[in-house]
Each structure stands twice: as structure tokens, then as C-alpha cells.
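Support case: user asked for a sample of complex input and structure output to validate their parser. Sending the pair below.
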Amino acid sequence: MENMVSIYLYGKKYEVPSNLTIMGAMEYAGYQLVRGCGCRNGFCGACATIYRIKGDRELKVCLACQTKVEDNMYIATLPFFPLVKEVYDIEKIKPTEQIMMQLYPEIYACIGCNACTKACTQGLNVMQYIAYAQRGEYEKCAEESFDCVMCGVCSSRCPAGISHPQVALLARRLNGKYLAPACGHLEDRVREIENGDFKELLEGLMQKPISEMKELYNNREIEK
Amino acid sequence: MYNKEMLESIKKVEAKRADNAVLEPRRMTADEKDTLLATYHPDYKQNEFAVLQIGANKGEKVPTELAALLQANSRIRPDSVDLEKVDYDVDVLVIGGGGAGSSAAIEAHNGGANVMIVTKLRIGDANTMMAEGGIQAADKPNDSPAVHYLDAFGGGHFAAKPELLYKLVSEAPDAIKWLSGLGVEFDKAPDGTMITTHGGGTSRKRMHAAKDYSGAEIMRTLRDEVLNRGIPVVDFTAAIELILDENGRAAGAVLMNMETRELLVARAKTVIIATGGAGRLHYQGFPTSNHYGATADGLVLGYRAGAKLLYADTLQYHPTGAAYPEQIFGALVTEKVRSLGAKLINCDGEAFMHPLETRDVAAASIIRECSDRGKGVHTDDGIGVWLDTPMIELKNGEGTIEKRIPAMLRMFAKYGIDIRKEPILVYPTLHYQNGGLDIRPDCMTTQVENLYVAGEAVGGIHGRNRLMGNSLLDIIVFGRDAGKAASAHYKDVTVGKLTLAHITRFAEEMKAAGISTDMVSPKLLPTYTHGNPNLTEKAF
Ligand SMILES: Cc1cc2nc3c(=O)[nH]c(=O)nc-3n(C[C@H](O)[C@H](O)[C@H](O)COP(=O)(O)OP(=O)(O)OC[C@H]3O[C@@H](n4cnc5c(N)ncnc54)[C@H](O)[C@@H]3O)c2cc1C
Ligand code: FES
């Protein structure tokens, strides 16, 4: 017999096998998920969940697809959180401090409570990356926030109403487009292709009989 | 934690680690590979396939689970939908909010079209978001699109459509440039040189990555761009049938709100199917690495409307799905782990194959190790072989794992496994739909006019097996091209009277072929009950 535990889904009690994830346990209980379930593997942030273990004061957060159930777990999912997403034209904005002031001025109202960091389902230092964003240090903000899955739990805990994941996304796009070093060999290759440099070679390959392609393939040199 | 058998095997792995780390296992010959595949690869198990009795691919075989959906009933009675009551009227209708759909929408928007995305879950809840390893492009001086072509053509068993593969490789560098221009961060050296690695079957190091969140980094950027442009995204809304016009051309789709089940009509001058893969059909009972909505819907929609499939009998089983712990059973362990130097090791600590053979060969080789050779490692309810992750830092120095594959580190750490110190257990998982709808180089289907396809729903770009990193590439290249083609073409389109007569016709063909089933399709979502004895699995 499997080891069973008691969990409370939105307050209602269910007995479920202890080896299931919260997501699996909801399905075991009979839910057909539509919301709150995307990638099922920790990448999409659809399954943000808040829980408390009976007798414990602390509210904990997690991704339901990545967390095993525990006995006496009270579970509420957070399949949607109204983050603020400002629109902008990536071609027109510049990676200066002003852009954050303009689009997400509330980041300057951060009171340093660190609730966002404590709430991060990915274990990121959220308050730190917001601090970088405040100072216009987008490269650092991008690096610190890189593993964000945009589940929105941080924002749900923020007294200042900051939409941390959107701030970080803007910083990463600024970094990727404007601050990261340009790539010379990429530019060169794009130009060569536009020039038609490889056209003949490729068309030659396309015409070759399969037997000849097999020869070429099986004897191709492989970079160490 | 690891059971006794596993712990004992780990001791052997550790004892031979230093030797195995420097060993360069021999690559298999072409003949050895052929025999291995024919004996052990799931695609060759004849009894797992069924022959289609109706439709454009009548007489051809596809996996039984797919055959059942292709030859199932529509979710709607054609006469119950009022096609005169149009809820959305657009130039370009994009079905599917993954990487292909988003790229298509952005380019269609650039082309001046009134474009809209409908998607089953949220935009970005998609296989694209989950891609870890990276994206190929021949942009280094020692590489060229021709070498890329040869790698992909051979890796796909010489079956790719040459004109599609030509586009894939020659538009690859521009795809990377486009993504960079949108702000996608790639791993780079301080001088801007891309940090690139091998993938299985590549002959040059051309795998570009954004750590092991490559797909997420691309997807969240594309999503942001779609939103910045104000392109309407109707989420939690699935396309459940295509609508044609009286001239037999694609002219929209019947949509269903996934939560309320309300039906809606979208009319469009052109339609782009970008619905992705099929992992959630769990072919042959395999676990999958795919997102929740990967149920081959696009293939079903297209097939009913008369489109043709190509290579729908070929699936990719990724060699390294997690075999342990059971909570992440089937989840992907990116190929990049092997690119960085981890080798596949059997229960006796032997490196039984070259770690960078193509995926089909690697999967078949692991299955052989775990079956006939009896060299697998048993978990409490499964089997697998080791992927010796500590080798990575032995070879590249401490800190490499955290820097290059943080998602993998995190995924196993949640279950108390430190991949820097302990190897992980892997077994093949259902990963990718090699086949799909047959298209011309401009992405339009060969059979249905004004119907375009991009991304994993396409068949023929890669042939019968796809190389790592060529799929993220194809969704960008063909996603963009489909968007451009549709937004150039819609201006010449006048939509005739809308009809669902093809659905009635398909039902009649089914009847004539003696097919009678309770099943409806597209499947939209899988149903899981995890063995609850009080529940019966009821299709969504
Ligand atoms: C875990 C994992 C790792 C991978 N790693 C790599 C890698 O490193 N490199 C690489 O090149 N490739 C990789 N791949 C493959 C690659 O990511 C996918 O093949 C590719 O992203 C597919 O993109 P897509 O846009 O075609 O489909 P998806 O990104 O899956 O998007 C399809 C969208 O359509 C929606 N949809 C489905 N049906 C309907 C419907 N009926 N109506 C409306 N919407 C619908 C889906 O919900 C989804 O949002 C990986 C795949 C997985 C699963
Ligand atoms: S479902 Fe995607 S993170 Fe959990």
C-alpha cells in the first residue's frame, strides 16, 4: 500500500500518495487542470502555489509541478497574478536609468522588506536584482534574474506593487540588445549569405544522389 | 534516495570516473547504427503502428495513438455552429502561442497584417519554453551552411526535403541575429564571440545557448515583443476545427474556450498552424518531456481539412529523460549535459557508447543496454543508465555546472541530488514529433490553399530524425517565413462563403471505411489520475 498523506486543496481535505507532486496530487484528487499547468517541469511559471503546513505560521510558495506534497499541507494555487506590463518599442528605448523611471517608477518605492526574495520559487535574489534595475545596472540585473520563470509570486507579496518579473525582462532585453558585446562572426556570416556565397555549394549538395551524400556524411571530419 | 542497487552501482561509476572521463569511445559505423536502430528503436516496432484507412495519407502507417485521433469524430456537429456569426475577423490567424506562432505573428505584424494569436493555454506555455540546450547556426569561421546541411541531412537519414533544409541552414545566422536584435541573451565571450558546443550528430560546434534556459529566454522575449506590439492574444482558447471557404481554401477556425467551452468563430484570409508536438499522446506508453498541451492537435485539424502528413511515423525519443526520482520521470535532461562532457555509463561503470551519437542511435543504445545486455540500473519501479555529471567539472573545472546548466542543477537539487557530486539516472523519453504537415518552401501546405504551418507541426524539414538545436532554429526560421508569406499573400485573398462541409465529408468517409469510435479529436489535453482507484480517466 502506498504511503498516503492528507492535504487540503483550497481548504478541502484529500488523501493522496505521498510521492506525488502537488500538481499530481490535484489530479489524483480528480481535478482536470486547465489553468495552473503549462510545462509541467519548472520552466513556464504557470503553477505558482502558496501553502502552509498545519501548525506552522509561515506561508511558503512553490511551483506545484516541482514540489512534493507533505502531510497536512494547505494548498492554494495562484494561476494568475495581475502584473503590470508596460509596452515599449525595443528599437527606440535606450539602456539608460531613465527608461526604468519612465516605465516602472514603482521600483523606487521598494521599502527593502525582502519579501520578494523570500517568495521566489526559483530561489533568486529578487530584491537585489530590483536594486540593480534602480541603478540602471542592467547587465547585473539580467544575470541575477536570469532563471526567472515569471510566476509572479514575488509581486503578490510586494507592498510596493512592483512587477518584478517584468522589470527583469526589460533589463534582460536591454542587456541582450544594447549592452552585450556585438558578435562579429555572426555579422560576417549573415553578410556572406546575403552575398550568395554559399548558394552554389548548397545547391550542389541538394542535387547530389543519396549514395554520394552518404559517402560525404559518413566520412565528414568532426571538430574535436 | 538512491536505493541499494543504485548506490552500489554508483561506487563502480566513481571508481572508473577518471578513466572514463578521458576515454573517447568509438563512434559506431553506419552498419552498426542501422542494425541497432532496427532492433531497438521504438519507431521500428511494427505492432505499435496502424495503417490509415482514410484521408490524404490513406495506406500509410502512423503510431496507433495518432491513427485513433486522426480517424476520430469531430468535437462539433457542423450544423450546430453558426458560421455567419463571426467573432473574430482577421487577415492572419495564428493557432498556437509557442515560438513558431509568436515569430509568425511578429513578422505578419511587420508585414502590415491584422494578425491574432489563439492559444490553448497561455502564450508561452509551450515546448519552446522548455528547450534547454540551444539553437544551431553555422556562423563560425570553421563552419558553413553547407556543413550544417550535411549534418542535418545525414542525421535525418537523408530524408529531409532539400528545399526546406536549404532554408533552415541558410537562414540560420539571420535567425540568431534577429533574436539578438530583439534582446535575446546568448552565451558570449567578452569579445562577443558566441560560446558554442557540439550537439549529437554535429560536426562543428554550432550550438548557441542561453545557459540551459535557451528556449525560455527566446520564448519570454518573443512573448514580450508580441505584447509590445499589441497583437491580440486570445488565451485558453483552442482551435478545434479549421473552417474552409466554398472554394476549399483555409478561411478560419472554430475555437473553443477551454474553461467555459463556449464556441467561437474566427474568420481569416490566411491561417497558420503552429500547434507544436505530440508528447502528451504518450506513444508506446513512454513518458514525455513535452508541455501539457502537446497533443498533435494541428495534425488532426489539418488532416480533416485535407492536408497531407509527412513522416508522421517517426518520433524522437530523447535518450536522456530523467529515470529517477519518479516525480520528474520523463523530464528532459538536456543533451548539453553530454556536450559539456558527461558520459553514459552502465551499471558496471562502463562507458558503453560515444555520448554524442545522434538521438535515435543514443536512445536505441540505452534501450539495448537496459534490455538484452542486462546492464541497466534498477530503480524501485523502473530502469535506466547513468549519466555521469560529475565528469563535467572534472573536465571543465568547478563551477561549470552552476554556470552552464543551472536548470539541471536546480531540478535535481529539489529532490536532494547534487549533480555535481552524483551521477543521474536516465532513460529515453518521448520528446519530439519529427513528422507533421507537408509544406512547400513558403510554408503553405501542399494540399490546402491559404493554410500555412510552422514549427514542430511541420514534417519534412529534418527528415526522419532531428538534431538537437535544429528545432528552436526551425521555429524561428519557418515561423518568421510563414508570417511573412501570409502577410504578403492575404492581400490577394477574398474569402468565399465559410463552410464546415469537409467535416461532414470526413465523417462520411469514416463511415464508408467502417470506422466507428467514441473518440473525439483534437485531444486538447491529456487526463491523468495517477492510479486513483476511484477515478476513471475521462477524456477532456
Ligand atoms: C523539454 C524540451 C527541451 C527541448 N530542447 C530543445 C533544444 O535544446 N534545442 C532545440 O532546438 N529544440 C529543443 N526542443 C524542441 C523545441 O523546443 C520544440 O520543438 C519547439 O519549441 C516547438 O515550437 P512550436 O512553436 O512549434 O511549438 P510549441 O512551442 O509547443 O507551441 C505550440 C503552442 O500551440 C498551442 N496549441 C496546441 N494545440 C492547440 C490548439 N488546438 N489550439 C490552440 N493552440 C494550441 C500549445 O499549447 C502551445 O502553446 C525541446 C523540447 C522540449 C519539450
Ligand atoms: S507547470 Fe510550468 S512551471 Fe510548473
